[in-house]
Amino acid sequence: MAQVLPSLDRVRFQFPTSIAAVAAALERNALELSAPASPVLLEHNAPAIPSGWLQLSGHPKSIAPAANGSVRKRISGPSDAEVVAYRQLSVDSNACKVVPKFLGVHRLDGEYFIELQDLLHGFHDPHVMDIKIGFRTFSENEVSNTTLREDLYKKMIAIDPAAPTAEEHQQKAITKLRYMLFRENMSSSHEKGFRIEALKMRGSSPVTDMKTVKTSQEIQGTISNFVNGRKSVVKDMTKRLKQMRTLIEKSEFFQRHQVVGSSIFIVYDDHKVGVWLIDFAKALPLPEGVKVDHRKRWTLGNCEEGLLFGVDELIRTLEDVHRGLQQSSHDSKKYGRR
After folding, report:
1. Which structural domain, as residue segments, surrounds residue 161?
2. Which EC number(s) does the record attach to this protein (predicted)?
3. Nearest to 184 by CA among 218, 150, 156
4. In a domain, 321, yes or no
5. CA angle 116, 122, 125 (to 5 degrees)
6. C-alpha dihedral (175, 177, 178, 182), degrees to nearest 10
7. What kind and span of H or E run contains 179?
8. What is the reported pTM?
9. Are both 290 and 202 inside the same structural domain?
10. Structural domain contains residue 4
């Protein structure tokens, strides 16, 4: 059985193509709902980008490797929301066990960078998967404006001409909330509280445009292929996610925050499995008097985002995948004896 790691934002791989070519492809395929980081490649006082290094998802050129198994990411300043979140996560005795290690903030030539643990450090030619967690990947502030927008209507009909209602067709405009919910409903986010955002298999190019992986069958098939039939990997992933769920439920940070746009980051090689929660640019303190359980359905103003609902569903999905692999193994042995 592979070793499970107890506790990046994006990662390092060996690619057969050039960094520039893959980065361009990633940018073309990036989901609009992803919580983006700055698209500027880190250059100041960072080592040269090693051959084959590239982040898996999110906006390309947002993260670069630093020394000693860490990565640096450009931020707006020392009060950046993600910095504030990581500072609090790092001193929460439960939350710190589910996220990358926070290694500080650096100011270089007038610009600021957050330094985090490189979660790929110590893995050899790994398989990786990024799973966006929650019902929504947008903050309530982003959709509070009720202005009807013609540009978003045009985007909607470009994707699905039948999606607008008769009234919306007549107005030829929709609100940003309507558009964002439409985009979430295209994937499994709305129903299951998670969607597979991107993955990278050993020896293959990254797959980043996965918004059509929506049904239970499609999701289970994708994960089965990702683990390459390895039941022990699925078992270790499930065990780690259950541990993370318990830690999140106990964490004071998660009791006081809505956590929007975060991802479950999964990596494994021939020897070990790692699972973490990453991306906290939209981890926002709850308004006074508001409480969340991270499982209720979101309505405007209740601040629920479905973080733990998504973890619950992901665990159930992995358990289904494990049963399916066991059945396949049993059938192979059964028919192999005939």
Report:
1. 143-187
2. 2.7.-.-
3. 156
4. yes
5. 110
6. 140
7. helix 176-186
8. 0.79
9. yes
10. no
**Contact predicate 34/59, CB 8 Å:** yes
Q: How far apart are CA 58 and CA 39, in angstroms?
A: 9
- Cα(332)–Cα(338) distance, integer angstroms: 10
63 is a domain residue = yes
Q: How many residues does the chain have?
A: 338
Edge-to-edge order in the sheet of strand 263-268: 3-4, 272-278, 263-268, 127-133, 194-200
Each residue's pLDDT tens digit, 44-92? 333 444 444 445 555 445 677 777 789 888 899 999 999 999 999 999 9
Same domain, 51 and 127: yes
pLDDT tens digits, 195-227: 999 999 988 888 887 877 999 999 999 999 999
Yes or no: say if 230 and 269 are a contact pair by the CB < 8 Å rule. no
The tally of domains found in the chain comes to: 2
Same domain? 116 vs 228:
yes
Q: Where are the beta strands (DSSP E) in 165-232?
A: 194-200
Instruction: Name the token pair of 308.
Output: 């733990």
* Phi, psi (rounded to 5 degrees) for 273: -125, 135
